[in-house]
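Now for today's protein:

——
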Amino acid sequence: MRRGHPWLYADAIRRQSHEGPAGNLAVLFDRRRRFLAIGLYDPTSPIRARILHAGQPANINTAWFQSKLTAAYNKRSSLHIDPNTTGYRLVNGENDGLPGLVIDRFASVGVVKIDTPAWLPYLHEFLLPALPRGMPLTQLVLRFSRSIALADRLGYEDGQTILGSIVHRPVTFLENGLCFAADVVSGQKTGFFFDHRENRSRVEKHSPGRQVLNVFSYSGSFSLYAARGGARQVVDLDASQQALAAAAHNFQLNQHIPTVAAAEHSMIANDAFAGLRELAQANRHFDMVIIDPPAMARKASDLEKALAAYRHLVTGGLAVLQPGGILVMASCTGRVTAETFFTLVHQTANEAKRPLKEITRTGHAPDHPVAFKEGAYLKCLFATAG
């Protein structure tokens, strides 16, 4: 706690004075009864308290929330003034001192995603009144983590509009001048993955003249950057027909860009593992393969299975990658460290006799600051394959 770690696990508590509902403030003391911190109490989670404030006692009120939100808002000052980017992360949970709370901006629509029901009592009483005046949001949508049970939602619904007129349709926004539509009401997470923004720009720079395969393509964001960068062919591979329809729509939104209009865009509805295997069997090859799977290990017991899945994906990606082509391999599994991930990718490539020459290793976009060890979840490798 004193070093700034934002979580107190249930099995670390020596003694608790009494039980309480989610959202109560937990005041934490050390074994000598010295004040440690104040956190949001959640009896439904192994993370029993999420730390709001440590060091000296403080009043957790509207002014306190406003100071935190304003500090987070000011960190993104370069994004606020960029007319070509109207979608990005405004609050990054623990890493901005507001554990379990994320706010993403989609033009004038904000999405508040919570990982604990402990935030619900604070939404209307403290959080909404504390939003900085400069924050360009006229509507707010509430999204829940899958871990929050229906019984703990205090009458709120996933996708509910909690500020402004009701948000019904996908919301359009700009990222580096490209137009995207996001399903902020029922899409994955908040509806879009802003953490890869810089990686998408890197893909664009490496794309001229290439044939690109985007695995786990979701709404086609990597593909659209590749097309604008001059890729002559882009193939989206995803198991979700809904995601592929969203990708097609995003390409339609950008047909005014000559390189996007010129790129041949096609889609394959299939499981990623089966899709890669079938492409290899059909002798299909690409000059760039992008593999950005969802989180593979939500608990410690899933770790070995996740590592095996990454090995299969690297092997499958290399099987359809031309010699000298670029492999873009990402992991958003927090339980897999960067060292473990990058070592695994290289070892797998060596075993396949396709050694990799690194171009760069990357992590989170700047609007996803990392303030503690577990907050560093995103790893991405750009490399050419022998």
